[in-house]
Design goal:
Layout: H1 3-24, H2 28-36, H3 41-58, H4 64-84, H5 88-93, H6 95-107
Helix pairs in contact: 1-3, 1-6, 3-4, 4-6
């Protein structure tokens, strides 16, 4: 495994854990964002748990593909929500982790 691949794995794991942690911790900005879209905070909690689980799975070579797919799904859901909130520029930038998670998924058990 190359250094670039390891960095990609680490970056997606950290991003997914951080995004999920903010949701599970019910950070006020996250809660306000979900409430602004008329979404339940329970949904925020579920998405956060999935993102944290994805981060952990990415670190286990046997489950890396599943973890990366879950992370990509979480990032994509977040990007769509950001787009629905009218922040198209930020939503477009938020697609970068989706692509990076897709790349990590291709690494599989490497």
């Amino acid at each position: 495994m190359t250094l670039i691949q390891r960095i990609a794995i680490g970056a997606i794991a950290i991003l997914s854990a951080a995004a999920g942690g903010a949701k599970v911790a019910m950070v006020p900005n996250e809660a306000a964002f979900f409430e602004g879209l008329n979404l339940s905070l329970k949904y925020m909690m579920v998405l956060g748990v999935v993102q944290i689980a994805a981060a952990l799975l990415i670190l286990l070579p046997k489950f890396r593909m599943v973890g990366a797919a879950l992370a990509a799904m979480g990032f994509l859901i977040s990007a769509v929500m950001i787009f629905k909130n009218g922040q198209t520029g930020f939503a477009a930038v938020s697609l970068i982790p989706v692509l990076l998670a897709g790349y990590v998924a291709t690494l599989g058990k490497k």
